[in-house]
# Entry
Amino acid sequence: MTTIRPTTIDAGTVLAADPDWWRQAAVYQVYPRSFADANGDGIGDLRGITARIPYLVELGVDAVWLSPFYPSALADGGYDVDDYRDVDPKLGTLADFDEMIAALHGAGIRLIADIVPNHSSDRHEWFREALASPPGSAARDRYIFRDGEGPDRSEPPSDWESIFGGSAWQPVGDGQFYLHLFAPEQPDLNWANRQVRDDFLATIRFWSDRGVDGFRVDVAHALAKDLTYPLRSHAELEQTRLAGDGSHPLWDREELDEIYAEWRAVFDEYDPPRTAVAEAWVAPTRRHRYAAPTSLGQAFNFDLLRANFDAAEFHEIVDRNMAFAAETGSSNTWVFSNHDVIRHATRYGLPDDDTAGYDIGKQWLFSGGVSPAVDAARGLRRARAATLFLLGLPGSAYLYQGEELGLPEVADIPDTARQDPSFFRNAGVEIGRDGCRVPLPWAADAPSYGFGPTDAAHLPQPEWFAQYAVDLQAADPNSTLTMYRRALALRHELQGPENLAWIALDHPDLLAYQRPGGWTILTNFGDAPVPLPSAFADREQVLSSGPIDDAALLPAETTIWYR
Ligand code: NOJ
Ligand code: CA
# Structure
């Protein structure tokens, strides 16, 4: 093993006005209510984050992406925003925010704020005003109100379904309905309305002026809508969505280009320009509009997250995305886990044909009782191998809090403790996303496993959380945390030009690629050891995702970094 670079960072140098800082950044997603609780009320908060900045520095991340921290009734984990230009009092104050961002910057870490433009919450002052105003009023035009159908206008305007289940239309009692693609507490904004557009430009400036370095744009592909009558049926829309040709009235429409061009103009008022990454669940071939430099500049690629743990699938996905980055001028984005999907340490332990079981629709697979018997050891082994494969790739890596601990999904949350609207609106079908949002274990032997100073945790932490605690892992040279720290420290050395060269290997389970500076990353995706290819026999092994007992063999489901 070689020495790892010290983690002390000269903030002045790191945060110099480098307009390309985002291209190969390791970005760590903080889901604020579940990260660290400073005041002991069971809800993670901004001061908790500030207190844990030394941890982030030691982990070696370049930026934090902060999930919504705005005032919210938490109908959807904060993605129901009451006020876009304030901090949720449950999480702190604007002064706490300023302190947090100053401390992050002082530690050499950038901040990406989550912005939620498709819908506000139903408690937003605009929505209250809309409800208090008559049909056809200017206040209603900021949202999407339509007359009901039927003789007494009691039927919804169409049979559209919300993403979380149930009708996408909510009646307001005067013959009109409003559209909500997500929960009823999340009314969709009308992006054809100039005030809506201007208000978001003001929000972007508000946070950029406070030092926010970039934005993660929630459901970026939903803002523009065509509600010309007659509205098409749900079945017809499904056909169009599957066709993915841009003709869907709700998703991925051309008018988005104009909206994001306005955002880009604001981003470019700053030095360095503010960045943005689109959350857009569109076909890979349709990601260009968001990743273009005239638009948001980067778009999440969820391809690896959706793939099976399989050499051929990973190979194809990397090639496709390398080509995509070259076409758009953007950089790659790699991600295995976030607050919406089953943690990858668990996903990779599902029976073989289900390792692509990423989505909330499949979460019943491992819920108590119906479980297909998750193989936790295998899940972790594969997750570690996949992570080292990912961290060597050119482009940015998006990591989700807790994955550096190899944390599994929590399946055993009692129904009474659940919070996710996808659980309540799909009773008995989906267990929702709470299992990846359980407050982190920091200390094995402390109240709330060190999440806060008291026992309180807004989602129950299982007893087995102790064994994943940060304090245990920090002291263990073989822990997942130690592996992440080493990989992130070394990663800077292989971030030259954003290219890679595959090394031809005559085995279907092996993939190897070369990066700048002579770095080579080799993965065995198979479930059996493979004789080490001769090309690697004399290479220096710097890091591996699992134990190497026999130098002549590459163990099953293992990645090695060579220099
Ligand atoms: C995507 C977010 O990641 C998810 O958590 C949220 O429920 C929806 N957008 C709606 O805002
Ligand atoms: Ca708190």
